[in-house]
Amino acid sequence: MPKISLDWIVQWDRSITFPTLTERLFAEGLGLQELIEVLCSRDEELCLGLCGPRYHPTNSRYRRAGTRWKTLGCRFGRFRIKVSRVQDNWTGRTFVPLWKDIIIEPLKIYQKDIIALSSGHAERMTYRDSKDRLDRFVLGGPSPRTINRRVIEYGTELSDAIHERELEAMTHQPDGTKVHAQGPGKRKHDVNIVLATNEGKEPRLRALTVGRPWRDIRAPLERTTFRNRAGQPIPPTVMSDLERGLAELMTPENGYWLPCLVHVVKNTGFTLWEDGLSMSDEKKRIVGTVNGLLAHLRNSLECHLPKGERTAVEHRIRQTTKEFRRLATILHDRGFFKTARFLREISNAVTTFAVLALQGIKVPWHNNRIERLMGEVSKRFKHKWMSWTEKGAQSLLTLLVVRIIEPSVYRTFWNQKLYGFPNQMADMGVQVTRLRSEV
């Protein structure tokens, strides 16, 4: 029966990265043996071009200077290859010609392709589990410690780029949580995340810090320019939950703070519980009243503003504030002091999104996106048996959050790392052909 043999051609018209070569060979169904043959073939070809045939004296500038063994780890596994060294007779410098055509990380065994695979596993599972998963299809993959070290290296680089970039946004959405920290005692790291959101666009990561207070996060926020869809400057706005002190720290001067309306309803139920009103029909009626007032305001905005009926929206804004204060007075008279104080303090802020809409600034009335993001953070980080260093948590969290929030930025980062281009090239200089021959 016919037998299929493989042949490959590498276009050496430019330098390519080592992951570029392994990616193309992997895409064509080739493996480690073919990779070694390609490397050895190119190594001999380069030496022949520089130094001439072996054991034939020439007047060339270069001469062979022996060989050396190099250990590499890639997506095909860990292997050793003998590479030729060449000496420049003019300068006395010795080098390996192969590493000019195929760019590697010279001081590291494991190259970026296997590290990219390891990082993708580490974002979803522990470092030890990442190692076990890789061992299923890679012989001699990196250890958990190596994966950890390289994830910190690349995560730090991505984190620096995220914090230094300039962004345009209409709203900042901050939220925070805590993760277990390394060290004596039951310490925890504060994890603070800020998203920059725009109307009709996907949110972007503005800042992410671990082990630092909210006041230290203001520097990256200064790199955000607040503009509307028409490109006109608008006042800075911050949308957040009701975490104590967060609004005061995150809202810039002359800016607006928008409470998440979902959290307003939830916090009303919580303050009623603090006032001694447990789950009952009365509590449901009070919470339902607050929810109904906010829903009425949102529906009025969606109904009247597109028709240009600004007066109706302005009336509903005033009525919402008045109804909140009236309900607060009733609850105060009945002894629900904490709930009354909360509703009175929040009565103006709950209408901020509608006030801004009248100015042509459309901002969200909830922070569900960042809440779902914090849920993803919890799945990966908030386990009792885990403990994190600040640098390790910062790096891995940055990779995880950017992958979820900005997948295009995540792909561009790794493509630049692996292939040297923001977008992966179609052939990357490697062509593989299949030759059919009879036995």
Task: Pick out its properties.
2 domains; 3-stranded antiparallel sheet; 14 strands; 16 helices; 439 residues; single chain; alpha/beta
Descriptive overview:
This protein folds into two domains: 3-121 and 420-437, no CATH class; 168-375, no CATH class. The chain has 16 helices and 14 strands. The protein has helices at residues 18-27, 32-51, 98-101, 112-122, 127-135, 144-164, 218-221, 246-250, 261-274, 281-304, 310-333, 337-346, 352-358, 368-381, 390-405, 407-419, and strands at 3-10, 16-17, 62-74, 77-88, 94-95, 102-103, 167-169, 171-180, 188-197, 204-210, 224-226, 237-240, 256-259, 430-437. Strand 12 (237-240), helix 8 (246-250) and strand 13 form a beta-alpha-beta unit. The protein is elongated, with a radius of gyration of 30 Å.
Note the topology.
Blueprint: E1 3-10, E2 16-17, H1 18-27, H2 32-51, E3 62-74, E4 77-88, E5 94-95, H3 98-101, E6 102-103, H4 112-122, H5 127-135, H6 144-164, E7 167-169, E8 171-180, E9 188-197, E10 204-210, H7 218-221, E11 224-226, E12 237-240, H8 246-250, E13 256-259, H9 261-274, H10 281-304, H11 310-333, H12 337-346, H13 352-358, H14 368-381, H15 390-405, H16 407-419, E14 430-437
Parallel strand pairs: 2-6, 7-11, 12-13
Antiparallel strand pairs: 1-14, 3-4, 4-5, 8-9, 9-10
